[in-house]
Amino acid sequence: MFFISQKYFYMTIIKNLLLLFIITLSPSLLAEWATGTGESLIHPDITETEACLMAKRKAKEKAIEAVTGINFSSKGYQICSEENLAEDPSEGACRLISTLISVTRGLIIETQNEVKKITERNNLRYCSYSIDADVVKRGNPNPSFDFDVKLNSSYYKHGDPMRISISPGLPMYISMFVLSLEASENQLVSLLYPQYSSEQKTKKIRKQTVYPTNENFQYTVEFPKYSSKQRVAEILAITATEEPVSFYKKAFTEAEFNAKINEIDSSKIRVKYVPFYIYKN
To answer: What is the mean pLDDT of residues 71-77?
Structure first.
C-alpha cells in the first residue's frame, strides 16, 4: 500500500490538468524523440575536438530533420558549395549554418544516450557521434516576411571593410551577429548591430538599406588573433523581426543564441546566415 499526502494529491491533479490544458491548446508543442548520427573527418585544418563538435552538430541536425521532415542543407551558400567541402576549413561554418537553420524549425529540449567514437578508414581518422534527442517542432515561418541580403564580398583580408545590403519584403527590424568558430565557447556569437555600431537602437526598415548606415562608421573585418590558420570562415547571422527585440548582451553561446531565437513566434521572425572567409595578410 502507498500513502499519498493530501497536498501531493492535489498538486498531482493540478499538474495533470495543466498538462491537459497545454496539450489541448498547443498540440504543436508536443515533443518527439528521434535518433541522429553524424560523422566528421579529422585532418590538419580540423582538430579532433573541432571534428567531434561538427559530428555532434550533424547528429542534432539529423534528429531535428527526423521530426520536422525538412532537409537542412548549407550547400546553397557560395563557400559551402565547393566540391571539396568535406575537407575544406569552411566545413565548420557550413555545418554550423545547417545546424542553426535546423533549430529555427525544431528545438531540442533534452538529449540522452550520447555516444562519441573515433574510427579509422583508409588511413583517415573520423569522429562519429550518435544522440537521442527530444525535439519540439516549431511552426512554419510567414513566407511573405522575408528579405534578401548581400555582402560587398565573400572573401576578406584582415582590416577590410564589410558592407551589408538588406532588401526587406515587408517592414522589419534588423539585428546582426557574427559567429566565429575560433572564439571561445562563451563568445561564439557576437552582436554586430545595433549595439556594436554607432547606432545604439535598431530601426524599422522599409526599403533597401546598406549597413553601416552611418557613413562615418565602418565594420572592419579582423582575423582571429590566436588562430594558426591562414584562412578562417565566419558567419554573419541576420535576424528580421516584426517587433524590435532586445538582445541583452554583446556575446552569446550558441545555446543562448538558439534559445533567444526560439522565444520568438516563428511567423514573426526570419533568420539568414551568410558565411564568409577571412585571410591573414
So the answer is: 53
